[in-house]
Write a structure and sequence with these properties.
The protein has 10 helices and 10 strands. With 365 residues, it is of the alpha/beta class. Strands 9-6-5-4-1-2-3-10 form an 8-stranded mixed beta sheet, sandwiched between helices. A two-stranded parallel ribbon has the order 7-8.
């Protein structure tokens, strides 16, 4: 377990270990863990002129959060993008908007993804995907792959923070069925299998993009407003937290600080480490590893694997035998082939439809 004082101490050094003018993207950041982490990032990066994109469905919340960030980080710049990320076409439109604003030499240092939904219902999106699977798997992976060129851009020639953090179920999951669409499974079983597919897909991306580190986190039980929505699963979560919350829940502010640590600490480095750059290269890939801790191990059991499955407390799940066996048997490549097939099926040349993504841009000055 990474103790909270070590987390807070590392986060406090962030201005010395990220580039001035860093660019970050937070998807699903108008409430819950995403907002808590966004707030922590704005607080700790103040003085470095950060540019922050954050994406959410609620325009009213987006405007309010923009004003709050203006007070927290007066020297930064924020771009709120109102969008429903359950649709792959809208994900593409959002990414095009970001790329256009950043230009040809654009760079991204951090992509933090927490957009999600708590539901046990089986319903499809207008693109024909199961809603929960679309949000937790396909749209997240589409967002990541679309923005990977910008994540790689800044990390090609010098050591600098370049990281993807996905908040879902790092290291968790179940065995996969032969049909990777998961249509044959119940909602709960599909959610568990989606976690396994996410672990494998992110491990594949880490292998193909050694300049970028990938972190998949199980956030634990965190009290958020998402648990106040109607439905059976939210009711179960509220009941459990009502009885056991004081012993098992992580506070929202602490969760934000911990996920900022996951997003910016050198304990979770890319495959391509600092030693592989030219001797005169300057910079760092994040805040220093706290004293007494070591570089984390990936699902393959090796340190510096570039992809890390973490528990809420920052400890890696490096002894997952099922996941390790899947990797050894080439399952991550099969999962990625399936994901690309879904992308092609929905986003082919004749299937593209321009969407009405709205953006609200507010410079913090």
């Amino acid at each position: 377990m990474v103790l909270l004082p070590a987390v807070l101490s590392a986060n406090s050094t962030l201005p010395s270990h990220i580039p001035h003018g860093s660019v970050s993207v937070f998807a699903g950041a108008t409430s819950g863990i995403g907002l808590a982490t966004l707030t922590a990032f704005a607080k700790h990066s103040c003085g470095t002129r950060p540019r922050i994109y954050f994406i959410g469905r609620n325009a009213e919340a987006g405007g309010r959060i923009t004003q709050e960030l203006k007070q927290t980080c007066p020297d930064g710049e924020v771009v709120f993008i109102q969008a429903d990320l359950s649709l792959l076409r809208i994900v593409d439109e959002v990414c095009s908007h970001i790329k256009e604003r950043e230009g040809k030499e654009g760079k991204i240092n951090l992509l933090f993804v927490s957009a999600g939904i708590i539901s046990m219902d089986k319903q499809d999106t207008s693109e024909g995907l199961d809603l929960v699977t679309a949000i937790t798997l396909y749209s997240r992976l589409r967002l990541i792959t679309n923005l990977l060129p910008l994540l790689q851009q800044g990390a090609n020639s010098s050591p600098v923070l370049s990281r993807v953090v996905n908040i879902f179920a790092g290291g968790k999951g179940s065995a996969l069925p032969l049909d990777l669409s998961l249509r044959s499974l119940s909602a709960l079983a599909a959610r568990s299998a989606t976690a396994t597919m996410t672990n494998l897909a992110m491990s594949h991306l880490a292998l193909k993009h050694p300049q970028v580190s990938f972190v998949h986190v199980f956030p634990g039980f965190v009290r958020t407003k998402n648990q106040d929505i109607p439905g059976f699963l939210p009711f179960v979560i509220r009941t459990v937290m009502g009885v056991f919350g004081r012993w098992i829940c992580v506070g929202l502010e602490e969760s934000g600080e911990r996920h900022l640590f996951h997003a910016t600490n050198e304990r979770y480095p890319p495959v391509r480490g600092i030693i592989e750059f030219d001797g005169d290269a300057k910079g760092s890939t994040g805040t220093p590893v706290p004293e007494g801790l070591e570089v984390a191990k990936g699902p393959d059991g090796k340190p510096r694997s570039g992809m890390y499955c973490l528990n809420w407390d920052g400890e890696e799940d490096a002894e997952n035998k099922v996941l390790k066996q899947y990797i050894e048997n080439g399952m991550r490549e099969k999962v990625w082939e399936h994901v690309e097939e879904v992308f092609r099926g929905i986003l082919g040349p004749t299937a593209y439809v321009s969407c009405s993504t709205k953006s609200v841009i507010q410079k913090l000055d």
